[in-house]
Amino acid sequence: MSLAPAPARGQHLPALDGLRGLAVALVVIGHYYGEVPFDESRHGLVFLRDLSAFFTGGLELFFVLSGYLITSILLARRSSPNLNRVFYTRRLCRTVPAYLLLLLAFLLLRPLVPLDTPWTAPEFDGPVPWWSYALMVQNVFMATLRDIGPWWLVVTWSLAVEEQFYAFMPWLVRFSRPALLPVLAALSVLLCPWLRWFFIEHAGNPFAALYLLPSRMDALLVGAGLAVLTTTPAARDWLGRQRAWRRGGLFLFGVFYLGGPFLLVSAAARITASTLLGLGFGSLLTEVLLEPESWLCGILENPALLFLGGISYSLYLFHLPVLYTVHALFSGRQPLHRSAGGWAATGLSLALSLLCATLARRWVELPFIRLGRKWEYLPGQPSS
Questions:
Q1: Tens of pLDDT along 109-146?
Q2: Which of 106, 40, 31, 4 is nearest to 316 (CA)?
Q3: Choice between 21 and 265, residue whose per-residue pLDDT is larger
Q4: Residues 339-363 pLDDT 10s
Q5: Average model confidence (pLDDT) for the chain?
Q6: Are 201 and 215 in contact (CB under 8 A)?
Q7: Is 138 exposed, middle or buried (0-12, 13-18, 19+ CB in 10 A)?
Q8: What CA–CA distances, in Å, run from 308 to 15, 124, 262, 296, 321?
Q9: What is the four-CA torsion angle of 89, 93, 96, 100, rounded to 10 degrees?
Q10: Which DSSP string corresponds to 4-37?
């Protein structure tokens, strides 16, 4: 199979939507069926939970994709005189409306819910200040207070990490040489595991290891580095000639991914898992970018993954609030899989989450995305 040319500016690769759909599927299945307590005396269910352990790494895949897509946009418009203004405007239109909808639902429901019951207290209360969510710095407070805050909003820490990453990337791309990004990616692969080890073993603060940008930007920078390598002709040609090594890397990633839930028994292994997942998903993304007509892209372009990819942002935001709410209405407690009713409540939560995400995508996300596209990048001098 011959190496495909680099995508033209604005060209859409459906397989990237499929990767995004895969990422959100991994996250939702992991949260719904891997983390909800169940009756451990039933060995069949233990087997199901072991299987759900394979549905990990969705967040690292999101980070790799975000790093790649954002950096690709910035590289293509690097010399535009209004780069920062248009970039930030479009990002605000893309990410903020659905996020504000989530915050609004939380703020409207919180006064109506008694906070003295076993399930409502952790879901709607916590020491993380509400205004930190509006400023996208909740991850910093989670780390400093060593608390995840209200469960309803727990997934938003990763959005804060991405927004903080977006804050400096336009400046970095504009005022540095593109070749710096792969170097930074390589350095992050070495530095981020060390930072996580330092926060956990020396500072005694696993929250900092999990939620702060410096300890979680390796996957983002892997994606950014790939954006440079797959659009620079010489680097892309070199990657294309390394097909055997690329396939070998994918094979090793598959071995790690399938065996990871059973191999990650030491603290050191757990500390490096995020970086290894970022590198592995980076290798997967590389195959998609270099060979868009391959069987792999054919799998990623199936209608189910493309549908999930389209609604992935809203689905990621709302899947846990829906899960907590449905279980509270069914049983008056936190999600549990200890009866047929608990499993039914989770199944209903999944269906409602898909419905909510579809509606939010159509009526909230897309109108604002179209609004953001009214701001256009001005042409600039060709970048070196």
A1: 888 877 777 777 788 888 999 999 999 999 999 999 99
A2: 31
A3: 21
A4: 888 899 999 999 999 999 999 999 9
A5: 88
A6: no
A7: buried
A8: 12, 28, 28, 17, 18
A9: 130
A10: PPPPPTT---HHHHHHHHHHHHHHHHIIIIISS-
The secondary structure of residue 80, as a DSSP letter, is: -
- Give the bridge partners for 38, in sequence order: 337
Closest by Cα among 22, 14, 24, 159 to 92:
159
CA angle 20, 23, 25 (to 5 degrees): 110
CA dihedral 138, 141, 147, 153 (to 10 degrees): -10
Q: How far apart are the C-alpha atoms of 44 and 367, rounded to whole Å? A: 46
Task: Delimit the domains of the chain by residue range.
Answer: 14-372
pLDDT at 276: 86
9 burial via Cβ count (<10 Å: 0-12, 13-18, 19+)? exposed
Query: Quick one: how many helices (H) and strands (E) in the chain?
Result: 20, 0
Instruction: Flag whether pLDDT at 260 surpasses 90.
Output: no
